[in-house]
Amino acid sequence: MTGAPPIVRHLAELSAALISPTDTVRLCTLAGPGQGSSASVFLEIWEPGGSQPLNSHPDSAEIFLVLSGRATAHSDAHTIDLTPGDVLILQPGSEHRIVNTSATDRLYTITVMADDGGFAALVDSGIAVPLTPADIHTVVPRSAANPDS
After folding, report:
1. Is 118 left (phi over 0), alpha (psi -120 to 50) or beta?
2. In this predicted model, what pLDDT tens digit does every residue of 50-95 receive, in sequence order?
3. Share of the chain above pLDDT 70, in %
4. How far is the C-alpha of 149 from the C-alpha of 141, rounded, in Å?
5. In this structure, are residues 75 and 90 in contact, taking their beta carbons and an 8 Å threshold?
């Protein structure tokens, strides 16, 4: 058998990024073209009351798994409330944005784009910002992140 070796990335060693300085959503690329994948996977973190700008991805379905927090998703003429455990599937070309409806809590999602059309590169060229311990513990429970605790 031939092929590239598997890649393991550790969340605690990754950083997130802001696409622009005034953004209220941080994105952490978990996997994408830089890791040899045609699909891109992100941890997205919305600050309380934060939202994405209206956006669209003409060639990619976008799937959000809500880990923590509450939000309202706007997609074309549709509006849907989201809670933890919801899976939101947006069709290619939909104009959408997600708004964190909490004034105090962050919204966390794992987001998958089937063919990101360069979105991971846009994220990775953004302004690097750290992941906080709370961000990491939203994805990795404390006992798994630190087996000795």
Report:
1. left
2. 999 999 999 999 999 999 999 999 999 999 999 999 999 999 999 9
3. 93
4. 11
5. yes
Dist. CA 65–CA 30, nearest whole Å? 14
Burial class (CB in 10 A: 0-12, 13-18, 19+), 65: middle
The 3-class SS string of 9-76 reads: CCHHHCEEEECCCCCCEEEEEEECHHHCCCCEEEEEEECCCCECCCECCCCCCEEEEEEECCEEEEEC
- The reported pLDDT for the residue numbered 117 is 86
Indicate the pLDDT class of residue 144, thresholds 50, 70 and 90: low
**Would you state the structure tokens that stand for residue 38, as one six-digit string?**
């045609």
pLDDT in tens, 5-25: 899 999 999 999 999 999 999
What is the tens place of the pLDDT at every residue in 89-104? 999 999 999 999 999 9
Query: What residues form DSSP beta bridges with 89?
Result: 63
Angle at 71 between CA 65 and CA 73, to 5 degrees: 80
Query: What structural domains and CATH numbers belong to the chain?
Result: 21-129 (2.60.120.10)
What span, in angstroms and rounded, lies between the C-alpha atoms of 82 and 62? 15
